[in-house]
């Protein structure tokens, strides 16, 4: 920290109690100056020789020799600095007291016209030659100016500090030789290794956002002015601006917010959030991360920021939704909503994001007619993955309506959801937490997914899930059988000619489905024979029966009944698949195996309609 010493005489100021200050001298004091609650017993001549205002005040005082100064800038402490300078006593100026001394000297009119080398001149030299050239001193001085408004503003100290700070933020990091604060976690390329690194290497390792933590200590009004000046210079990257705003928000916004916060503090938070929103970098594609924007939106809702600011945030978020995490989307709902999270807000953001993606989709077409997935296509797939994860979180909410769940799921286009495992998990959770759903409602929820897009693990789980409608389980079992048959066929084709890759057409799919049904019926025949053997021997099947050596696994009674239905369906509809298996199928996720019972009734006693 820079400092300047003025005067050469020892400090002779002494205190008598808390509110009386005097100069220890052989000469008796002849004037009393009241500054606020403190009385200064001083001598007229030293004061009048340096201060034009004191000269006029003491001349008017007459024989009373006592004057009152009510609105003195900086109060008694700053007056004492000026008084010591008048006596020629040692005074040390630094970044913490230079502004108050400058404002006090201006009030007392300690100019060059009164005495050459007066206090105003010396302070101006110190500010311009030392303070404004120092990074941290400029910030400290700027912080002290707030309590001295409007004096510090009129004397252009505030503006000079802001210009000095903004100019230094634009300096090439390789040219920075001064100290700065950087407590945030550095990325591997930016991390400064203290040991084994010379001074030149440390300078080269200065990150671009080296300055953001130091200025985050400023009050919001001063911070706003600094950031506006930094942006006006046009040399700062939008990402660095975004990092600065994020750092300031972390510094001043609380981690949580509730109704117990006072109105005054709520107003302060509201003004802070509104200021940060107006300071967002203009480049919507870069700058602030989506995670930070969502946190800002969350807090904006909590403190009651106006609709225009929230609308602006929603617009910015929709352009970068693919960068968000599920945790970022969990924004608490506000009255009169009775859900845990604001699903309507997320629905709005998703709709805007998809609309933007549709308008700017850059899918290209190759010469052979195949599509190349462009950047926008991949972005929408990331959004689909994000929303599926969000659905698994909100599915636990008992107050979440089926329409909200279904509408949000349907907002994602089919191509953006190539795998339905996470969606299946969300559906299963929703069915588990909403046991009062009717059969039609369960069918509607399960209709969101396509069982052909489930992985093998998810299909295995779904086949044993008793929360799913029977029709969905049948579809899962059927397409698993088709998938298995298709895999065998693909291996055979590859063995014949490894140079030719095959793609199933509709006719091949029908053939594969027929083969799958034949294979399924053969397995069921073996299972029925084995069942008869068990019954003859009087053995009871247990829940956790082991897999026999021949590989046939005994399934729970519900799955056995499903196989019986597939037996009937497969016999009559191999060529033309029934409507139950032709549509998109769906299935949820928690394991709920049914009780295993012995196979009792034949396929002829089963219903032909599967619902």
TrEMBL record:
InterPro entries per the UniProt record, alphabetical: BTB/POZ_dom, NPH3/RPT2-like, NPH3_dom, SKP1/BTB/POZ_sf
Biased composition annotated in UniProt, kind: Low complexity: 579-590
Keyword Mitochondrion assigned: no
Chain positions covered by the region annotation Disordered: 574-611
Coiled coil: none
Domain NPH3: 209-483
A Pfam cross-reference name: BTB
Keywords, sorted A to Z: Ubl conjugation pathway
Family: Belongs to the NPH3 family.
PANTHER family with a match to the protein in the record: OS12G0117600 PROTEIN
Record's protein name: BTB/POZ domain-containing protein NPY1-like isoform X1
